[in-house]
Amino acid sequence: MLAMNYRGPMRVRVDQKPMPQIEHPEDAIVRVTRSCICGSDLHLYNGLVPDTRVGSTFGHEFIGVVEEIGPEVHKLKVGDHVLVPFNIACGKCAFCRQGLFGNCHESNPQATAVGGIFGYSHTAGGFAGGQAEFVRVPYANVGPTVIPEGMDPDDAVLLTDVVPTAYQAAEMGGIQPGDTVVVFGAGPVGIMAARCCWLFGAGRVIVFDEVDYRLEFVRNYASCEAYNYKEIDDVVLFVKKTTDWLGADVCIDAVGADAAGNTAQTLLGRKMLMTGGSATALHWAINAVKKGGIVSIVGVYGPIDSLIPIGNVVNKGLTIRANQASVKKHLPRLIEHVMSGTLNPKALITHRIPLEEISDAYRMFSDKLDNCIKPVLIPPTARS
Amino acid sequence: MENTETGVRSRPDIKGWGIDADPANDPTYPMKARTDEEQLGYTWERPTQQPITVEVLHSNERPNVSAVYGSTLPPKGLSGQLRRYAFKYSESDYKHWLPLVLADRVDVVEGLIDDIKHGHIPNIFAERGWKVKWKHDRSGLIKDIAVAAVITYAVYAWLSPGRKKRRRD
């Protein structure tokens, strides 16, 4: 089968790889029909996540058709068109039973901090991802969800990560009616998070990024204020001034390890790999939020220490909430929102690219070429 | 320390234990639906273990390999040795993560050698997506190449035998 093949930082290609096999009684084999490149895939692409082995297949946002099931799979049948949450979760461990499906203890031998994630390095379990024609899906009774009749596949594929992550970012913010929320990052998650903040009753939503076409998009899509931080001397001071000198009630970091905007963070985190990534957005979030406020983190960082002003967290009495999205937990509500038209995820998709052109797709998304917001890869088996 | 029927650890032997507890004040909400099952330890009914058919490195912060794991890329070569060394140390230790970062870089070189051994000369330009970069951001690509060329030349000049000889003279 054709599958993405990571060869080193900023080098990927498509190669023939062996077909995935049923390796566990609860496995399913899924033929991929859509697969996205996620902003967090760029952290892998740029070589920022330790234990990303050459030969890996990335891709944790995908949907597809069930081709084969293991002997203990009883919730799916061959031929079902399913959306597959990016978390690999057993549903039985103490953490899954508390709704922490992103923190499953039975899906990742290599690290205890995070559960298994499709195509996200051996630090997240070493599973092959969905940027391929076929993929092995463990615990098929737990994660995969049959796509509701009438749902657009482009909406479905964004329910595997982007929408739940954005929704959880807003939910973790504990937004109260009337709150001012600042979202750092106007990538797909930041855009959707800005939209979701209104669902929780935000009174004002402000987005910062450095890419003008994305700022224009989020301004229209999420009906929010949007500013280019490069045109502002001091982002934190700007937030203070525009919130009557107190700061935002809630700040959301929707950027993570690849943040620009601070030379020292960029050098240490992105170039020298001495920290868990460039924590510029998180730094701003902590300093721009009000005393007693909440910082919600969904941007992904590497496991090594990062440079953040922890003293200000203490002195301001902040609450920090963070996690990988618990996709399965949010799906029922989010499916309602999509089916009712409250949320329109597919509007984020700007490029549909053949899987065979994955090198160009990564470059286009990484360098924000051709006004790219969200690229979707279509395998040849899904085009015929 | 005792376990009650609910699984919540309690200390009824300590005067005043829990008298100010307020279950509604739960900072984990909405992320976690509190059950406190983890207080019972590693006692849940584990899923069937995926047969361990390849070498699986596991964190020393857990006693076992998780019930499922990715099997496609077991450690190999020099990068594999570095990864085995890294997994002697906990996730809290730089001696875990920095060898993994180094192993990833060694793996890139091993990957190039592996490609060539299999008769495949990697097309670095295509793998880096320069075609689309050329189409949409030609000046950016030229700038990237120029910066890379300057850095490469500077490193070469710094390490070249001629420079060391000149310094000795």
Topology:
The complex is a heterodimer of chains A (384) and B (169).
Chain A: E1 2-8, E2 11-16, E3 28-36, H1 41-45, E4 62-69, E5 81-84, E6 87-88, E7 116-117, E8 134-137, E9 145-146, H2 153-158, H3 162-172, E10 180-184, H4 188-199, E11 204-209, H5 212-221, E12 225-228, H6 235-242, E13 248-253, H7 263-271, H8 280-288, E14 289-297, H9 310-316, E15 319-322, H10 327-339, E16 349-354, H11 358-366, E17 374-378, H12 380-383
Parallel strand pairs in A: 10-11, 10-13, 11-12, 13-14, 14-15, 16-17
Antiparallel strand pairs in A: 1-2, 3-4, 3-8, 3-17, 4-5, 5-9, 6-7
Chain B: E1 2-3, E2 9-10, H1 77-86, H2 94-117, H3 124-127, H4 130-136, H5 138-159, H6 161-168
Antiparallel strand pairs in B: 1-2
Helix pairs in contact in B: 1-2, 4-5
Question: Which outline of chain A best applies?
Answer: globular
Please state the CA-atom Rg of chain B, rounded to the nearest Å. 27 Å
Q: Sheet bearing the most strands of chain A, described? A: 7 strands, mixed
Number of strands of chain A: 17
CATH-defined topology of the largest domain in chain A: Quinone Oxidoreductase, Chain A, domain 1
Give the low-pLDDT segments of chain A: none
Cα(first) to Cα(last) distance of chain B is 75 Å
The secondary-structure element order of chain B is EEHHHHHH
Can you list the strand order of the major beta sheet of chain B? Answer: 1-2
Total separate domains of chain A: 2
Largest interface: A-B, 71 and 66 residues
